[in-house]
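Field reference: sequence -> structure
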Amino acid sequence: MLRRRRREKGAASQKPLAYSATLVNLGDLYRIEKRFAEAQPLLAKGLEVREQIVGVQKSALVEVLGPYGGMFFVQAKYAEAQPLWERAVTLSDQPGTASVLLAQSLNNLGELYRRMGKLNEAEKPLKRAYEMWPKVNLGESDRMLLTCEHYAALLTQLGRDTEAKEIEQHADRVRKKLSERH
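Structure field:
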């Protein structure tokens, strides 16, 4: 009897999760197509549905917060992106763990701070993302390359040209590895 209730409860929670996934996927597609007026309500609703699911995994929320913040970021609406991406970092940041979601969230937040002119705040998340990609086996990935570019730009803005040059050289090595694969 107890197993049956657990199965039923698990199946019931999958329906809202599947519904929210549809909303988020369509919203993300509209975001990519720069159809922001259509993307925003879908992403907002997808997040709202996931927040109402009892026992939802934190990663399920972070999966919505990333593109939702990204929608605002590409429109230079940084004040709207900031709380979403800060929340994504908070939810995915577990002591002693490295994850793709956390590394991506750190990269997003660091670049957001850099674009907002919050250079000192930008360094910590960008450096953590830079150090984390190899730990999640994406040290030679397009994600690592993007973090290198963001981190090098920040170091240049901070007047730390020698460090920036080292990161740029790392980016060149990653870029070369990626081109060899294609």
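Note: The chain is about 80% helix and 0% strand.
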